[in-house]
Structure formats: structure tokens, C-alpha cells
Amino acid sequence: MIDDDMLDRPFIEPDCEVIEAEEEAAAEPVTLSHVFRYPVNSTGLGMIGMYAGIPFVLTLSLFLIPLAPFRMGLFILVFVIKCIVVLSYFLYLTNCTRAVADGQLEPPSVLATSEDDTFWGLLRQCLLILAAAILCFAPSVIYTFSVLYRHLPPGDTFDVFLGLPVTIVLTFWGIFLTGLFFFPMCLLSIVMFDHLGALNPIFILGSVFSTFFSYALVAMLFFMPIALLMVTSVIKGTTWNLLLLLLLRAIGGYLLMMDAYILGWFFYKNEGKLRWDV
């Protein structure tokens, strides 16, 4: 309803440049090529540099302290700082996913945080992400320990590598791969909602089947950087070259940022099918 006070207010013309910029940003499509280009900018490379560089400098400092008493104290301090750096980077990746889900094609500012940026709020986010991983992978772990706990029944056919009955091996891989398939959706759901209720199995199943073919492709793309990251970890375990370790850590940070983009890109493209706003 229009009243007299509203008519007396001065008319403010909209900023046409701002509107045009917003329309161009909304019209620009999010394509697969952006996955590889997403971390390649000042903000993304800066965060990767922090993720790889700070632990490198701290590790290097351990070799520069010859005194044993100081070395032990420095080792503990370095370990704590490394944990903080890794934690900060992973929380930044969640901000990247939310930003891409909103249609932003560039990594968010380092200063951009979530709604609750206190220590306990950040810890809560980490625990929620951990809960998503537990939901997906705990069944295979529980099954493995239950099999190892019991006396394995003798079988006619055994797996040549593990020495276990083929049925047990197939059951384990079936449970593990199922959790692996649902993990990206669980991770995306917990990042977007920031609530434990987002891990409701019925909700997750409905989200997967409503976007099944798109999600299957995205899940495959999601695990490609992780597979490459595992390969770099194997190489890391076979060498003591610090410069190579720095390079491998930077590659890992780059691949993880690609994964953050893939999840946000999936939501951006399939928001209507997911109907998470209902």
C-alpha cells in the first residue's frame, strides 16, 4: 500500500552500471573449463601458496635448529601451526564451494568468512564435514573390523592378495564404493546447509536420484583430483627432497580447490532439480 510518506520520499535512480554488471555475471555460463582455471588468479594462488609455503618454511626451520631441547619444542609448535594452516585452508575451500554455488567465477576474498567465524563456529564446521565422511565410510570400516574380529570361515576360493574369501572382499568393496559415490553429495549438502540434518539419508538419496546422471559425472570428476593427490602423496613418501615436497603440496592445494569448484558448479547447474530451497 502506498502512503503519503512514501510519495514524499525522493526518487533514487538505480545504478545502471551495477545492474548491468550483475546481469552480465548472471548471464555468463559456468563451464567445465573453469574448473582448471579457477585457482589461477591472485587470490587462489595466494591461498595455495599459504597452504604449501608455510609448512615448507616451518619444516625447513627444523633443520636449522641444532639443539635437541629446542628442537623438540619447535617440532610441537610446527605441528600445531601446520594443523591450523591445513584447517584454515579446508575451511576456505568450503567458502569457495558456496561462492561458486552462488554463481561467482572467482575465488572469494581471503577475508570472506562464513556466518559464524568464531573459533567454535569453525570447529563446528570441521566436525560437520567429519560427520559427512563418517556417514559414508564408517560402514566399510565397521564391516572390515567385524570380519577381522571373527574367525574367518574356511572357503574354497580366496582372494590372492588379501587371503580372504572373495565374497568378503566383494562385500567390502561394494560397501566402500557406495560410500564413495555418495560422499560428494553429502559433502556438498553439509557445506551448503551447515547443519547435521543435511546428512539425512532420505534427503541425500533423493538429491542423488533427482540429478543422477549429472551427479554421476560430477562424482567422477570430483575423485579425479583426489586420485592425483593420492599419487602425489605416494611420491612424497618416497623422497626427502624438500623442494619436491613443496611442489607436491602446491599441486595438492590446486587440486583440492578444483574439487571445491566442482561441487559448487554442480549445485549452480542443478539447483532447480535439487530444490534445496524448498
Description of the structure:
By secondary structure, the chain is mainly α. The longest helix is centred in the first third of the chain and has 34 residues, at 68-101. It is globular. Helix 4 packs antiparallel against helix 10 (242-274) and helix 7 (166-193) packs across helix 8. The chain is built from 10 helices and no strands.
Keyphrases for this structure?
278 residues, mainly alpha, globular, disordered N terminus
How would you summarize the topology of this molecule?
Layout (H helix, E strand, L loop, with lengths): L3 H5 L7 H12 L5 H5 L4 H21 L5 H34 L17 H31 L16 H28 L7 H10 L1 H25 L5 H33 L4
Helix pairs in contact: 4-5, 4-10, 5-10, 6-7, 7-8, 7-9, 9-10
Low-confidence stretches: 1-27, 156-161
* Total DSSP E strands: 0
Distance between the termini: 28 Å
Portion of residues in beta strands equals under 5%
**Sheet having the most strands:** none
Question: What integer is the average pLDDT?
Answer: 77
Number of helices: 10
The radius of gyration over CA amounts to 24 Å
SSE pattern, N- to C-terminal? HHHHHHHHHH
Q: What shape does the CA trace take? A: globular
| Helix fraction bin | over 70%
> Which structural category do the helix and sheet elements fall into?
mainly alpha
Compact description:
This protein is mainly alpha-helical and 278 residues long. 73% of the residues lie in helices and 0% in strands.
